[in-house]
Design a protein that fits this description.
The chain is of the alpha+beta class. 36% of the residues lie in helices and 23% in strands. The N and C termini lie far apart (38 Å).
Length: 144
C-alpha cells in the first residue's frame, strides 16, 4: 500500500516537473470588494481556471497550466488577499499575448472577457485606486 506521504511527494514532483519545463510563471492574486459574495468569487475562480482550455492563440491552446485557489494560510502575512492563480507559459510571447499591455496593444480575448468581469469587483482604497490586485511574473530558474 502506498502511503499518503509518498503520493503527496509524487504529485508535488509531477507538478514541479511540469512547471520546470516552462519559462514564464504569471502569478495573479486578488482581493475583492467586501460586498462580493462567495458564489461570485467561486465563479471567478472557475472561469480563471477554465482559461487553460478556453484560451487559444492562433487556434491552439497556449497556456501550459493554471492552478489556484483561495487563501488558507493562518500566518497573517496574506495582506488580506483572497484568491491566487499561477499561470504557466512556455515563453514570454505567450505571456505577452495573454496579458496585453504593456507588452502589446491587445490581450487574449478570453482573458479580456474575464478581466472585464473581475475589474469592477476588485478592492479599492478610499480614493478609488485598485489595491486588490497583485501580479508577479518570473522566469523559471532565472538567476538562481
Amino acid at each position: 500500500m502506498v502511503s499518503k506521504k509518498a503520493l503527496t511527494l509524487a504529485f508535488a514532483a509531477a507538478l514541479f516537473a511540469q512547471a520546470a519545463q516552462a519559462d514564464i510563471q504569471h502569478i495573479v492574486v486578488v482581493k475583492s470588494q467586501a460586498n462580493t459574495d462567495a458564489g461570485t468569487k467561486a465563479d471567478i475562480a472557475k472561469r480563471f481556471l477554465a482559461l487553460k482550455d478556453v484560451a487559444k492563440r492562433d487556434g491552439q491552446p497556449y497556456i501550459v497550466s493554471i492552478t489556484g485557489g483561495r487563501a488558507i494560510s493562518k500566518e497573517g502575512f496574506d495582506q488580506q488577499l483572497e484568491q491566487a492563480f499561477i499561470v504557466t507559459f512556455k515563453n514570454a510571447a505567450d505571456r505577452d499575448y495573454f496579458v496585453g499591455k504593456p507588452y502589446r496593444n491587445t490581450m487574449d480575448p478570453d482573458h479580456l472577457a474575464l478581466a472585464t468581469i473581475v475589474e469592477p469587483l476588485l478592492h479599492r482604497d478610499v480614493d478609488g485606486k485598485v489595491t486588490g490586485l497583485f501580479i508577479f511574473d518570473f522566469n523559471d530558474g532565472a538567476e538562481r
